[in-house]
Amino acid sequence: MDILCGAGVGGGSLVYHGMTIQPDEEAFARSMPSGLDWTAFDQDFYRRVERRLRPAPIPRDLLGTKQYRAARQFHDQVLGKGLRPFRVPLPVDWDVVRRELRGELPPSYSTGDVIYGANNAGKRTLDVTYLAEAEATGLVQIQTLSWVRDIERDRSGRWIVHVDRITTGGRVAVRRRIVTDALFLGAGSAGTTQLLVKAKAKNLIPDLPDDVGTTSLIGFGLVKPLGEFRYDARTDDAVLHWKQSYDADLTAAIRDRITGIVGGSLLIDTTRFDTTTYHPLGGAVIGAVCDRYGRVRGQRGLYVTDGALIPGSTGACNPSMTIAALAERNMDAVLPEII
Ligand SMILES: Cc1cc2nc3c(=O)[nH]c(=O)nc-3n(C[C@H](O)[C@H](O)[C@H](O)COP(=O)(O)OP(=O)(O)OC[C@H]3O[C@@H](n4cnc5c(N)ncnc54)[C@H](O)[C@@H]3O)c2cc1C
């Protein structure tokens, strides 16, 4: 299983499609950790994410163009099966797509190239939303081309971040240490989990909870957290252990459902040839490794803020909106502790 992650200022949002979907109450309750108040998410935290990213579904004039014929066809096939299709909100400036179609901008959305990143400023990625807002406070400094190799707790309980400053070619230019009282991990499910698994195996952070590293991988359907990152001393890295059988039933159920709508001949499941996921979740989950607000248990000043907190799935929906809503909620609780 390969995990695809965005690497850059803005993380996964640089390359994601941007499907911004809120799970319904039942799916949320079935998949998210207990103790999260659905009503507060519905009325407040999801709404905050919407205000920042301003997701909107594709307008009908664009859906009518030849570039979106496949989407129209699928929509009609879904309707034909008596199901209710809906247009998924995306954090996209649809006027930019109109300009692409008029030939005023190089195509990106209208060709599907958007998953390699969009250079025409039409997507509200985190670098131009959340991170830009944070920088505008004057209190935040973003350091690019920096790879965190290890994290460590010193004898006085402070946190040491071992950072490699790299060149654009990936060569390590300088090795640095940053020392801090509070450390917020936001390296994504895979990145945060790798750092914690390494720290545990190398005893850089003594007494980390035992469940560090247990992960799920596919954000579709309600999956069980059966995968695991394990430390490999040879490569000094945390390596994913995952068997395809873990989600075989779920994959078959999704395939059957889609085949029932479009017919088998039209369906190509690329993950059968190259097993990949865009939606890693878990590794430092709420309840096992972290408390309800992302504080790592037994480790004062160490916090997890990303998809590593979420066990299993985000209510069978694409995960980014729930990851962001959870971060909004947790920051309300933990920031007053350190400011
Ligand atoms: C091609 C693609 C399409 C997707 N489409 C959708 C979609 O339509 N809708 C949806 O909801 N989700 C989608 N996703 C998933 C979504 O992007 C992720 O769920 C989301 O970005 C996870 O957010 P995060 O904050 O947990 O971590 P990330 O967004 O992964 O951010 C982690 C950041 O930390 C950095 N990092 C990691 N390790 C280190 C380290 N050791 N040192 C320094 N930096 C580090 C990474 O480079 C990255 O910038 C897609 C993902 C991909 C790859």
Describe this structure in words.
With 339 residues, this protein is α+β, with helices and mostly antiparallel strands. It has two domains: 2-52 and 182-338, FAD/NAD(P)-binding domain (3-Layer(bba) Sandwich), CATH 3.50.50; 55-123, no CATH class. The protein contains nine helices and eleven strands. The protein has helices at residues 25-31, 38-53, 60-63, 69-80, 94-101, 130-136, 188-201, 248-262, 320-338, and strands spanning 2-3, 146-153, 159-166, 172-180, 183-185, 214-216, 227-232, 237-241, 276-277, 281-282, 302-304. It has a four-stranded antiparallel sheet with strand order 8-7-6-10, covered by helices on one side. A three-stranded antiparallel sheet has the order 2-3-4. Helix 2 crosses helix 9. It is globular, with a radius of gyration of 21 Å. The model has no long low-confidence stretch (mean pLDDT 92).
Secondary-structure blueprint:
Blueprint: E1 2-3, H1 25-31, H2 38-53, H3 60-63, H4 69-80, H5 94-101, H6 130-136, E2 146-153, E3 159-166, E4 172-180, E5 183-185, H7 188-201, E6 214-216, E7 227-232, E8 237-241, H8 248-262, E9 276-277, E10 281-282, E11 302-304, H9 320-338
Parallel strand pairs: 1-9, 5-11
Antiparallel strand pairs: 2-3, 3-4, 6-7, 6-10, 7-8
Helix pairs in contact: 2-9
Bound molecules: flavin-adenine dinucleotide.
